[in-house]
Write a structure and sequence with these properties.
Chain lengths: 122, 223
């Protein structure tokens, strides 16, 4: 259960980025999380309310986009999507694949904010 | 009020990743091979590491260890018996080690005077996989009592490992360990992974493991 630390990092990064928008309130935070990143969306959502309380993110929505695992298949000379985390084999030719191209991401893609009036006027 | 979408495209664990990168640079510069040992609680990481430290020291290598635990310094005291410098990292409830904790506990150590540094992570097969500690090699350990399907249950961790160590091989037969199944499952999750079948008690498999460590370190220094 490290989702609370993850969510706390999200809050820190978002608050840091709000420096350019004084007084802004966050409405939505969008994450991109790979299937191999070992985070569970339900736990993220559960921790999000706690971690955002009393911050500029209070009341905002957390949207998590899950990215599939993509590996390089040398025999097909292609990047292939792995359907199951139980077997790291190419779905086309069944060769074992070990070169990860996507799936461990843990990123804040974007945030949606309401800017404060003063900022807008400037 | 104006609504605006701000693109951030930033890693959530950016702070940890940056610190880990810094650490990796220091480790490479100092010529010390750093390994991050990860497993469930009770796999025998400490016993395995005790034996590894002792045998490496007997072979003349300069070794040190950092050991993570929620509470207590029991493991550090056990490991220190090998004569190697050992420091305990108490995470006080945090289920994994982070790069910052590693950096802080290295203070005062001369990295250039070390050949190998082992970081024993908190016993946990989920959370440590997200946190880069600046290590060169991540080792996932699995004991013969845990069930051959552990890699299938924790693919996120086993897929991120560079090497796997099966521990407690001395009791494999007594507990009906299915070696073929374990190897098959490890390779299903991490094709091509190096697997060491060891017993810290009898010492079986240790020679091959130590050989691997030396090869890795030599490769590293040359690069």
């Amino acid at each position: 259960m490290h989702e609370l630390s993850i969510v706390s990092s999200v809050v820190d990064v978002v608050i840091e980025s709000l420096a350019a928008y004084p007084g802004a309130r966050v409405k939505e935070v969008r994450l991109r999380v790979g299937l191999l990143a070992s985070v569970v969306e339900d736990s993220l959502q559960f921790c999000y309310g706690i971690a955002t309380e009393g911050t500029a993110l209070d009341g905002s929505k957390l949207v998590v986009k899950v990215l599939p695992v993509v590996m390089r298949c040398e025999s097909c000379a292609a990047d292939v999507e792995i359907a199951s985390l139980q077997s790291f084999r190419c779905p086309r030719c069944d060769a074992p694949v070990s070169d990860l191209r996507q799936g461990r991401e843990m990123e804040i893609e974007s945030i949606e904010i309401d800017e404060a009036e003063e900022t807008v006027k400037q | 009020m104006t609504t605006r979408i701000v693109e951030l495209r930033q890693g959530i664990l950016k702070k940890n990743d940056e610190l880990a990168r810094e650490l990796r640079g220091r480790f490479v510069g100092a010529g010390v091979l750093v390994l991050n040992l990860v497993s469930s609680p009770g796999t025998g990481k400490t016993a395995f590491l005790e034996r590894t430290l002792r045998e490496l020291r007997e072979g003349g290598a300069r070794v040190a260890a950092l050991v993570g635990d929620l509470e207590t310094d029991n493991d550090a005291r056990r490991l220190a018996a090998s004569g190697a410098p050992v420091r305990q990292i108490n995470t006080h409830g945090i289920c994994h080690l982070e790069a910052e904790m590693v950096g802080k506990h290295l203070e005062g150590w001369e990295l250039g005077a070390l050949d190998f540094l082992f970081i024993e992570n908190v016993g946990n097969l989920v959370c440590p996989s997200s946190y880069d500690l600046g290590e060169k090699i991540r080792v996932a350990l699995l004991s013969v009592t845990e069930g051959e399907d552990k890699p299938l249950k924790y693919p996120t961790l086993f897929n991120s490992a560079d090497a796997a160590v099966i521990t407690k091989m001395d009791i494999a037969e007594a507990v009906g360990f299915d070696r073929e199944a374990a190897l098959k499952n490890l390779r299903a999750i991490r094709p091509g992974i190096r697997v060491f079948e060891t017993s810290a008690k009898s010492g079986s498999g240790m020679a091959e493991w130590l050989e691997y460590l030396k090869e890795q370190r030599a490769g590293k220094t040359a690069s």
